Amino acid sequence: MALLVMKFGGTSVADLERIRNAAVKVKREVARGHRVIVIVSAMSGETNKLVGLVGDAASGAEAEAPGFYDAREYDAVVASGELVTSGLMAIVLQEMGIQARSWQGWQVPVNTTSAHGAARIESIPRENLDRKFGEGMEVAVIAGFQGVAPDGRVTTLGRGGSDTTAVAFAAALEAERCDIYTDVDGIYTTDPRITAKARKLDKIAFEEMLELASLGAKVLQTRSVELAMRNKVRLQVLSSFSDEPGTLVCDEDEIMETNVVTGIACSRDEAKLTLISVADRPGVAAAIFGPLAEAGVIVDMIVQNISEEGRTDMTFSCPVGDVAKAERALEAAKARGEFNYRELDKDTDVAKVSIVGVGMRSHAGVAQKMFKNLADDGVNIKVITTSEIKVSVLVDRKYMELTVQSLHDAFELDRAP
Ligand code: ADP
Ligand code: ASP
Ligand code: MG
Question: What residues have CB less than 8 Å from 114, skipping those under 6 apart?
């Protein structure tokens, strides 16, 4: 019997009415002869609320940053949102005459590393689920976003992690498809909240989606795309509020035609830090970025500029939420005499805008066109990075939306290839 994974995000399970609406879609698949694994998120807003409570309880702690307090207890609290929705979904399905049962992460089990707050799934043994399916269970409703560490404690997978739960189940149980139901009816050329001209894509290549996700398009968690790509999971994003066809994430060679630029992503809460006048000598980058890595600062873009004879300025970007951590780590390393700098310049009002497309590999002038467009809009570029299939720029946060809209027009993303 073919098995299907259906994941419902926060807005799709925001209240009982929506849970019933989602359950109707599940019932339809059961009627088609599928066994179904349903993955649920917490009700929308719930995880934010729980994260806030943890921050309030640990006085002075930064709510978004486990590490300032006992991360095991952060997970104990934050994982609870999904327990509620999984139980409610199972009840609603039972009311519809379906043999459904809820499962918490440890019951499956979803085995993860012990990196609380950002755990990685290591294995999902299928025996328990298979046995229950054998005994007549039609639908397993799994609490997304959570797992169990080797020591038996509950873990969470990082924000947006129930996408990854879904793909991991699809891979472990060799599902026919992994359907991600959300509040948009597919993957668009850019976040449809930023421009009404955003166009829904029928298909997108794994690599492009991986870039878009890691550059800020939160429609799928990055790790879920990585897992799907590696395990060849057929991944689809579609709406839980309509029956429109969604977007298939697939291999590049399944896509006939694409624009040079497939999509635009942006990330609002970025910061730029510059260490002014550090010694220009071998080992200085290692000396700076070592302590940052140890402090858990997620460093993104890096630029080094020669400022004066024998000195250099080192600029890097990181999430705004990591700035305090970065500052502390740099100052401590400086105090230990590991390196020196004259000043630490902070710019916490920047955002990152990125264009992505596999077509860039074979087209020249794409970056130039992007830069020219920003110049025409009078938007200053603060940092640039590129890879084979993307160009990213850091700009003042107040220009983020404008930049996305303008680039969307310039690359004519509203037109199908
Ligand atoms: P869920 O709660 O279902 O996981 P998310 O809020 O995590 O939903 O993701 C869906 C949201 O992602 C959409 O509402 C949309 O605003 C945003 N988004 C960002 N970039 C894109 C894109 N390129 N295509 C579609 N949605 C996008
Ligand atoms: N509820 C979790 C979050 O808000 C996981 C998810 O929705 O994917 O991050
Ligand atoms: Mg999500």
Answer: 149, 150, 151, 153, 155
Distance CA 177, CA 244 (A): 17
Closest ligand (CA of 209)? 1
Mean pLDDT of the chain: 95
Ligand nearest the Cα of residue 10 is 1
Compute how many other C-beta atoms are within 10 angstroms of the C-beta atom of residue 147. 31
Note whether residue 334 is domain-resident. Answer: no
Q: How far is CA 1 from CA 34, 169, 314, in A?
A: 6, 16, 58
Q: What is the pLDDT of residues 231-276, one digit of tens each?
A: 999 999 999 999 999 999 999 999 988 899 999 999 999 999 999 9
Distance 225 CA to ligand 3 centre (A): 12
Beta carbon of 224 within 6 Å of any ligand 1 atom: no
| Crossing angle (nearest 10°) for helices 46-57 and 71-78 | 150
Query: Residue 152's domain is classified under what CATH number?
Result: 3.40.1160.10
Percent composition of the chain: helix, strand, coil (DSSP 3-state, to 5): 40, 25, 35
The number of angstroms, rounded, from the C-alpha of 65 to the middle of its chain's C-alpha atoms is: 16
- Between CA 192 and CA 343 the distance in angstroms is 40
Q: Write out pLDDT tens, residues 350-370.
A: 999 999 999 999 999 999 999
Residue 348 is assigned to a structural domain of this protein: no
71 lines ligand 1 (CB under 6 A): no
Quote the tokens at residue 259.
Answer: 């624009």
Does residue 9's CB lie within 6 angstroms of at least one atom of ligand 1?
yes
Q: Is residue 362 part of a domain?
A: no
Q: Which residue has the tokens 């993955």?
A: 39
* Residue bearing the CA closest to ligand 1, atom 17: 219
> What DSSP letter does each residue of 44-92 carry, written as one string?
TTHHHHHHHHHHHHSTT--TT-TTSS-HHHHHHHHTHHHHHHHHHHHHH
User: What tokens were used for 284?
Assistant: 């200085």
- Is position 228 within any domain? no
User: Which domain range does residue 66 map to?
Assistant: 3-183
Mapping DSSP to helix (H, G, I), strand (E, B) and coil, where does residue 26 land?
helix
Task: Tell me the two tokens of residue 238.
Answer: 């579609």
Which 3-state string (H, E, C) describes 114-128? CCCCCCCEEECCCHH
Quick one: which of 159, 154, 352, 361 has its CA closest to 269?
A: 352
* Domain count along the chain: 1
